[in-house]
Amino acid sequence: MPRRKTLALIVLSLAACTRPSSATTAKVEACGDASVPQKAIAACSELIRSGEVAGRELGIARFNRAVAYSQTGVQDKALADLDEALRLLPGDARAYGMRGVVHGRKGDVDAAIADFSISLKGEPTLVDSITNRGKALQDQGEFARAILDFDRALVLQPNNAFALNGRCWSRSVLNIDLDAALTDCNAGVEAGGDEVANTLNSRGFVHYRRGEYREAIASYDASLRLNPAGASSYYVRGLSKRALGESGVEADIGKALSLEPGVRERYAGYGVAP
Fold first, then answer.
1. What is the pTM of this model?
2. Which pLDDT tens digit goes with each residue over 231-247?
3. Radius of gyration for the chain, computed over Cα atoms and rounded to the nearest angstrom
4. What separation in angstroms does the CA of 80 have from each of 14, 63, 65, 74, 134?
5. Are residues 44 and 154 in the same domain?
6. Does 110 share its domain with 76?
7. Same domain, yes or no, for 98 and 13?
8. Is the separation of the CB atoms in 169 and 131 below 8 Å?
């Protein structure tokens, strides 16, 4: 699959679960609306400065602003808000989960895994934290452990596209249970959503592992139509064309290396000879 996107946001705003008691005002509504992050930041900042909320309500405002900051790429401010939110919302599973997302986006995978684990101690069925920890474990190369988290998520949400793709990809990297991996990828494609390009890429790698080079090329073609910048799709498509004796091998591999100079070494780490 392409280098995975950053960790998925904990999408449920705490304000959606608990509204501040004083809060029927427009700024509270805007603070809890993550669909327009810049407006949410402005509304939450005004609410925080106003002194109209305190305690848990202030923690919710800090959480919501952190979500918006993270969406706009301002991870340091998001982390500061989440630290303060957790002081005001001690033990809150969603706040720990969101802080794990921010740590992951900052590249601190160990801290991300630690926060996801704390989140899951508080709320063991919080699927976002389960799948995000699985993704973070993949980032550390711990694919077998990642599979356990994706298993757990899929018990709770059998059609979770992120978990289906994550388990398919982990199995393909480990070169194990390839029939089951293909089933997962097919189900993930059927589920649709934002993961389709990644899942098609993962399915391409499963087919490559199985020696089904024509099918691999078809999956990579479909992935590239959705994500033309997918370096690994070009790379393994090139390898598949080479295995079939087709033209276009060097063009695909060259494109892959231009997009991700380390893609050859990454796949060598998965046991794929260049």
1. 0.88
2. 999 999 999 999 999 99
3. 21
4. 17, 10, 10, 10, 25
5. no
6. yes
7. yes
8. no
